[in-house]
Design goal:
By secondary structure, the protein is α+β, with helices and mostly antiparallel strands. 21% of the residues lie in helices and 25% in strands. The protein is globular, with a radius of gyration of 23 Å. The relative contact order is 0.13.
Length: 153
């Protein structure tokens, strides 16, 4: 009787590593699906030459503020990408929110079910937003520009 998990397949391990025999490591079944999610979410559309539409639009949020609007957009972008590029998954639900310990990190909790199974799984994808820069005076050649008003009366 064939293994009912065979449809999940085997592929390269992510991140790519070397196995004990000196070859490229691989992953199989549910672990391969989990690693595939990290590849999808970690790839920006246009990043792959031969697959320009592959990836997740979450990278468009890189400079967005870490608030509820950004979190809601991240949830939608992640769900869209997973449903579009990972056919081995169904029933995807994403919940995003700011990380309380790191103000520039948005944690995206992803709950999913392997297709054809009643096996609910989840993972957390940390997405780092660019921290807000402090406002500094405009500088020119390393000297802060100042304006002087001269009254010639």
């Amino acid at each position: 009787m064939p293994n009912d998990r065979e449809f999940l397949g085997t592929g390269l391990r992510f991140p790519v590593s070397v196995n004990l025999n000196g070859g490229v490591s691989s992953s199989s079944f549910e672990e391969n699906v989990r690693q595939s999610l990290f590849v999808i979410l970690g790839t920006a559309p246009g990043e792959r030459i031969n697959r320009p539409r592959f990836g997740c639009r979450i990278h468009d949020l890189m400079f967005a503020p870490n608030n509820s609007t950004t979190a809601a957009r991240a949830e939608v972008f992640c769900e869209e990408a997973i449903l579009k590029f990972e056919p081995r998954i169904e029933k995807v639900v994403c919940h995003a929110g700011p990380n309380p310990d790191e103000p520039n990190r948005l944690d995206i909790r992803i709950e999913y079910v392997i297709a054809g199974k009643n096996d609910k799984r989840n993972l957390v994808f940390p997405f780092y937003l660019k921290p807000e820069e402090e406002q500094v005076p405009a500088e020119q050649d390393g000297v802060v520009a100042t304006a002087a008003v001269v009254n010639n009366a």
